[in-house]
Amino acid sequence: MNAPLLKVDGLKKSYGAILAVSGVSFEVMPGEIFGVIGPNGSGKTTMFNSVLGQITPDAGSIELNGRNITGLSPLQLNQRGVGRTFQTLQVFGKMTVRDNLIVAAQEHKGSMWSRMFAPGDSGLGAKADALIDQFRIRHVADKKAGELSYGQQKLVDIAMAFMSEPDLVLLDEPCAGVNPSLVGGISTLLKDLNKAGGNDGAKHRSFIVIEHNMDFVMDLCHRIMVMVEGTVMAIGTPAEIRGNKQVLDAYLGS
Amino acid sequence: MTDFLQLFLSGLATGSIYAVAALGFTLLWQASGTINFAQGEFVMLPAFIMLGFNAIGAPLVVSFVLTCGVAVLVLGWGFKRGIADPLLRFGMMPIVVATIGLAIAMRSGVRAGFSAEAHPFPSLFADKLFNIAGVTVTLADIGTLALSLMLVLGTQAFLAKTVTGRAMQAVAQNTDSATVLGINVPRMIFYTFAVNALLACAAALLVTPTYLAKFDMGESLGNKAFFAAIIGGFNNSRGALLGGLIVGVCENLAAAYISPTYKDAVALVIFMLVILFKPQGLLGKKAERKV
Amino acid sequence: MKKPQLLIGLVALVVLLAGPPFLKNYGIYLVSYWLVFVLANMGLNLTVGYAGQKSLGHAAFFGIGAYTVAIIMKAGFSFWLGLPVAAVGCFVIGLALGFPALRVQTIYLAFATLGFNTAVWLVMRNEEWLTGGTFGINNVARPGLFGLSLDSNLSYYYFVLGVTLLMGLLLWGLVRSPWGKAFTALRDNPIRAESLGVNIQAYTLLSFAIGAVYAGVAGALFASLVQFIEPAPFTVGASIMMYLMVVVGGPGYFFGPLLGSAVGVLLPEWLRFAQAWYLFVFGASVVVLMLWLPDGLLSIPDRIKARRLSREASAARAAAAKSIGAAA
Fold first, then answer.
1. ipTM of the complex as predicted
2. Which of A107, B239, C137, C315 has its CA 20 to 30 A from that of B188?
3. Would you tell me which CATH number, out of the four given (1.20.120, 1.10.10, 1.10.3470, 1.10.1740), belongs to the domain B2-277?
4. DSSP codes, C127-189
5. Model-level pTM?
6. Distance from CA of A248 to the nearest CA of B (A)
7. How far is B124 from chain C (nearest CA, A)?
């Protein structure tokens, strides 16, 4: 039995009188695609932001590869191999698509001082091109990211998270606002990217995916966690979750 | 002791005028994100317009009312449609620079087009002195303080208690939500610009008798209003009042007890101290770093 | 660098090298004055234009550079000691000024930089034992370079040009390196940038520090140019004018400061023919310029391109609609 890549234990976070997350615990194994579903307000985003260092939890611990990462900043987490996409698009609108990808990984190459003398693309041009081809956005690669359609920007947004080859990627509603015809493409892309190695070539990358699109989640994820009102209702395989009566009553309906 | 009280009271009077100008400035920022570097000139221009109406025979109060009308049209509507609306969506930089240019243009325009001299300005108040508990105060000081306080508190009451006022506040806090609630956002923003123009006219009426009407009177006044607004708290209308009064009083005391050359530096020093220790201003709320 | 840019750059360089000997003494002095501001504003363009910070206190660094050289030379030391001291001093102070930037946002950061400028100006005005107070420091000499005297306006001009070109090249290299993208990321989306590993705190501090160095070196050159240093050119008003120059030229465009400083320094001179109205024309021009080109003068090529692209897209849509209509 492998050691878990990510271990979250007893996470708690309140906003004033509102208990957004109360006692959430789960593990993500290396190479696993771990889905998180639940109604709005169930605390998914708060849990996400706690793992990502955007907010500090009131209680609980988060461990990555056995090392405590609770309360670290997003910057430190990225340096430790954690990547993320954002629910609302967050691309650099005034830079070209290619430059967006380059900047997504350039801070991992060398030190700040060596980067002063490095070439403009930090030697990442080939890798950026490879991702551009994999995501099939070659035809817009030299346009400013702000000029792309929503779906195209979403692809850039996801591609950026993978440029630095993180071990763990957190995807916040990757299908939100996306044309249904594109959803299948995103699912295939994520499956391919999951099979590619992390920094340690032996492992595969792990994902945590928040999504509301049930078909997408059931098809993509190895295991799914259901959150309701700040607590974990169930964790299991897609089949187990689909058959879980509590979950059906609370969230999925019949 | 009586000297101190005298200085204190006249400082309150001057400070209350700064508060009036600062209030307009703060409201403009809250409602539309406009930083008006020409606020001082917005006080200077009405002063000259009032002089103009006065010169053709209108009594002071009538001149004031007529000027208010002109100000709302030009400094309210004209400024909003001509400069603020086109530029606000480009961020802070263009509007800051445009108002800097506007200030230079207004100042130099009055100087070249009208006069570089300082002109006397009739006072609302007769030249009377009062003696209260051994302290000598002028009628002008008391009158100015009373009128300014009425204006500032009246504006705040208007914003807090009337339907229009509350709609204006809603627009200031969250433009998108206000639109969804059916509030006519552009009109509310216009009202804010209009209120600013009216406050500037009032400040002109109260301050020019002492300062005299000169093309560059807006520079120093604009600076003081700016600092007063920041000292009091830029995201809080009550801050404008507190900031203005503090600057007015400290200036007077510093000029008398330290040296007259320090008068202008006082606002700067208080400003610096506030920025160092409480950057959101004395009454301001801490602006959180948004995630 | 694209071909048209390179060509314009070369032409400009030739004009700058060969032109001044044909100007009168005052003209040469004026062009030197302009170049000094170009240098200072290159720094402000980095802080404000590339890194997206708010800095309304740039003239303070300009003044620190100028006073450093003036004071050091008055104490009997060489200009060549004053220049590096000014540069290093401004770097350190610029770093220190960056710290409030980490804690306060946008408008409050602007106020903090104003406060800083105010503090520095007050020291300049009041600490007579150090700065000569309002009387300033006069008779600041011009340096000698490898035995050559730089006393004449023309020779000092070439010196200023040389320093500006050198520092301009360094800045060009910096902006073309990964640092340039990091600054832009910091400006356009600091949260995303941070989640991608961009150390936004370090880059914020450095954007202030490097910008300050440029102003400090410019100030050092300014001291020996005007040869009389007093607090007046280093007020908050001066900072605001520098900010105006950067925004008018085009924030985030490399050559923006060249145009912006020309507007700020040279335009008022050229408008003197309008006599009493020249400042009014200047102020009104700035307003009109901002309304027409909110992104600055150098955004003109981008706007033309955008308009052409949108016209092409409209034409393509019209053609497609016609062909569908014809088929129906």
1. 0.84
2. B239
3. 1.10.3470
4. -HHHH-GGG-EE-PPPPEETTEE--SHHHHHHHHHHHHHHHHHHHHHHHHSHHHHHHHHHHH-
5. 0.86
6. 34
7. 32
